[in-house]
Amino acid sequence: MKCYLCKLEGKDTDAVASCIVCGMGVCMDHVVREEIDHWEGGYPFPATKLKKTIPRMLCKPCYNALMGGKK
């Protein structure tokens, strides 16, 4: 799999991860590793925020959309 964002820039770079939101393949320059809160709960409630976070790989566009452009 190749990095989609690199391809848009005219480069041919191997992807190292797939974005957990959109599924796009991304290289090391375009991936964001983020610790995301994990929620557990039944339908429809209650939901409980677990104590530990889970590492997730996101592309930069999805990260900016989800986190409000922090990176």
UniProtKB/TrEMBL annotation:
Classification via InterPro entries: UCP037465_Znf
The protein, known as: Zinc finger protein
Organism, scientific name: Methanococcus maripaludis (Methanococcus deltae)
Lineage summary: Archaea, Methanobacteriati, Methanobacteriota, Methanomada group, Methanococci
